[in-house]
Amino acid sequence: MENLQKIDLFNFDLETGKQKSYLPLFYQVFGQPLGSAPIVVVNHSLTGNSNVTAKNGWWNGIVGEKKVIDTDYFTVIAFNIPGNGFDGDLDNLIDNYKDYTIRDIARIFWEGLLHLKVKHVFAVIGGSLGGAITWEMAALHPDKIDNLIPIATDWKATDWVIANVLIQDQILNHSDDPIVDARLHATLLYRTPEYVNQRFRRSKLDELSTLQIENWLLDHGVKLKNRYRLAAYKLMNHLLKTNDITRNRPDFLTVANEIEANIHLITVDTDYLFIAEETRKTYRELSAKKLNVFYHQIQSIHGHDAYLIEFNQLSDILRPIFNYYGEQSSVSA
Question: Which of 181, 198, 227, 304 has the most CB atoms lying inside 10 A of its own CB?
Fold first, then answer.
């Protein structure tokens, strides 16, 4: 939690009509000082947090000195979704998780940027849940982002996503060991049958017939249980089903056409959660209306989690976008 900072938000009106009298918004800043360089906002995924780079950074392969999002040239801001537990304060966990939507989180992040006197950003980027938040941030303020980069995600929750959110929610609310059991199911969604079969090949750990695949899955579950809170898991999972930039707005093309940013859609060819074909449909629709829409695809056996693994491919995709190196761009203070 090095350099973790806090913004106090008061009397925040949720999309559901309820009001939150107090919300602490925790964040970290990496790279150049605020106001001195182009700003990149990185939105974390379901079990992620603001620690995107440096010690224990979950995206060190992408963000950092001499990396594609180069902290020698950019100011990187990463907010924690309120209630994710990264601050370690149990009082900041959220029990009434169904009161919140992705739109609320996007509005909270914009409130944070306003507090930091950031009026415009060079890029907003995020994967999975974080990518969904990027879409909503752009829909809320379509003129304040130069580059919108949603990765392994979508602008809406499909029926497939909603169905899997329901399964996760049922496990989280009814299992005797909810975090571990929910993680077993989620981990298989984040990978592929090809990866699992190729890696484990029905091999055993010992003479007692403990299978390596079972040990691997249970290990993922236990590790998450040791670092993650049940309330946080329930909230993050629920947010996925609330993803829809057209809710109480016009149709998708009307909303997206207002977004001034260059839109870089990045998919994983083997993603079994946010399937690539949905993003290809989005690209076909958008590119017929807008010139600054681009489609990129990571090829990987790893599935949804490839954006956390295939750093070389992702860097090659991102490099032309972030090849700033002193060129004129938006700096806000």
Answer: 304
